[in-house]
Specification:
The chain is α/β, with parallel strands linked by helices. The protein folds into two domains: about 35-120; about 125-425, Metal-dependent hydrolases (TIM Barrel, Alpha-Beta Barrel), CATH 3.20.20. It has helices at about 5-15, 40, 45-55, 60-65, 70-85, 90-100, 110-115, 125-135, 145-155, 170-175, 180-190, 195-215, 235-250, 260-275, 305-310, 325-335, 345-350, 350-365, 380-405, 410-425; strands at about 20-25, 135-140, 165-170, 220, 280-285, 315, 340, 370. It has an eight-stranded parallel sheet. Helix 6 crosses helix 19 (about 380-405). It starts with a helix and ends in a 5-residue tail after the last helix. The structure holds zinc ion. The site of zinc ion (ZN) has 3 residues, from loops.
Length: about 425
């Protein structure tokens, strides 16, 4: 059997396996009224970052994103930049959508005009059919960052898709604590007026506890976009002095990095809450969406003191820590409480992902790897197309290990099943 037929055979088996999607930003189906224009729909995902990287201006991007502008009018701009990005993995997702969803082999003005009247909308029908076909059983979603949405959720007034389990979105509760107004806005979620650091800590504990009672399965933090993952151990005196400065006069505010000791202190306390409430913590590590930003502040290795201190808390470290593969392998290998999560990385860098699947198997217990997360907003066709790439990366890795004589085909399928389903099910205590 050559590699291709082994690949096809294994892929077919892996395609049948159930999937727990470990990371999205969705509430589920929407009532949709306005029609979507093909180019706007086909660049709804991370591909926008590649377009920006290729030099598109914000004004041109706004034109492409505008559903009210005709495809013919946008085509010249789109074609110019599509030519530059057509070989990236983000562009591959668009190609898969074009082929698998709309049956079009190529992206041209003609094919875009042909799909004009059948552009998908994120309706319940779309979600149901796409997720069922892809065998996605459950989705872990991080969308409760909007305080209004969180309030509705803990009051039991938020309606959402049956396949979704939420995470408690943590960043703002430490990273935004810079002003009196913000602190009181958080207090208002439970009709409390905050008068001290203790009041604030008690409030956040209560919010997480109530969210858990309503079904939240973990905590999620993506502060690495705005700060370093290096959370220092700070004395209460130092943190409280900063907190009191904003409470003592509503006109005061803290800047950055002035607020860092308070932020660090709060994060440590919240990890203590995670331990008490027995909630695993998902952390954004590695690559960031958009363009520019500083990658070195996102390296998971900066979390070492957190991982070492909170040994009873399980950490699900995101995005394969791209591009820091060695560090994530070390953390997964040496820390019993570290899980390696492949969400998003499968389309950031398929070859990195293939290599990471291979190397985790040789270095880290395979029960500590969560194999897939789409990391998209309201675009179910992107989720399933991303999953296709993840399954391919995984299959190539497993074929390689079979060829090395490291595993047999039966084990390969068992491993894939644990990556895609069993491990997240156990880690997040899910009933599927
Ligand atoms: Zn995300």
């Amino acid at each position: 059997m050559n590699d291709d037929s082994l690949f096809c055979e294994l892929y077919r088996e892996i395609e049948k396996l159930p999937v727990i999607d470990c990371h999205e930003h969705i509430l589920g189906p929407k009532e949709v009224v306005s029609k979507r224009e093909p180019i706007a729909s086909l660049i709804s995902g991370y591909i926008q970052s590649d377009l920006l990287s290729a030099g598109i201006s914000q004004k041109e991007l706004d034109i492409l994103n505008d559903d009210s502008i005709d495809t013919e009018k946008k085509w010249e701009i789109f074609e110019r930049f599509w030519k530059r990005i057509q070989f990236t993995a983000y562009a591959k997702v668009t190609k898969i959508i074009m082929k698998d969803i709309y049956g079009e082999e190529s992206i041209s003005l003609e094919s875009l005009l042909r799909i004009k009247d059948k552009v998908l909308q994120p309706t319940k029908e779309t979600y149901d059919s796409l997720l069922d076909k892809a065998n996605i059983k459950l989705i872990l979603s991080d969308i409760l960052w909007d305080l209004g949405t969180l309030k509705r959720f803990i009051e039991g007034n938020l309606s959402y898709y049956s396949k979704i389990k939420f995470l408690f979105s943590l960043p703002q509760f430490h990273n935004n604590v810079r002003s009196y107004d913000f602190v009181q806005r958080v207090g208002s979620l439970l009709n409390r007026h905050i008068t001290s650091l203790d009041d604030y800590l008690e409030l956040v504990y209560e919010l997480i506890k109530r969210a858990k009672e309503k079904g939240v399965v973990g905590i999620k933090d993506q502060s690495a976009y705005t700060r370093s993952l290096d959370y220092g151990l700070v004395t209460r005196y130092e943190a409280e002095s900063l907190f009191n400065r904003i409470l003592s006069d509503p006109r005061n505010s803290l800047g950055w990095p002035e607020a860092k000791p308070l932020d660090d202190f709060l994060f440590h306390r919240f990890m203590g809450f995670a331990r008490e409430l027995k909630l695993p913590v998902q952390v954004h590590t590695g690559h960031m969406a958009g363009i520019r930003n500083k990658i070195e502040k996102t390296n998971a290795v900066l979390l070492s003191n957190i991982l070492e201190l909170y040994q009873d808390v399980n950490f699900d470290l995101f995005h394969g820590n791209w591009p820091y593969m060695g560090e994530i392998l070390f953390l997964g290998k040496n820390y019993p409480n570290v899980y390696i999560d492949f969400c998003w990385v499968n389309i950031i860098d398929p070859i990195y992902s293939e290599e990471l699947y291979c190397r985790t198997l040789l270095t880290v217990p395979h029960t500590k790897v969560n194999g897939f997360g789409g990391d998209y907003f309201d675009v179910p066709e992107y989720i399933v197309s991303h999953l296709k790439i993840a399954r391919e990366n995984m299959t190539r890795a497993l074929v390689k290990l079979i060829r090395m004589g490291w595993i047999d085909e039966y084990s390969a399928i068992e491993i894939a099943k644990s990556w895609l389903f069993e491990n997240p099910k156990r880690l997040f205590n899910l009933e599927v």
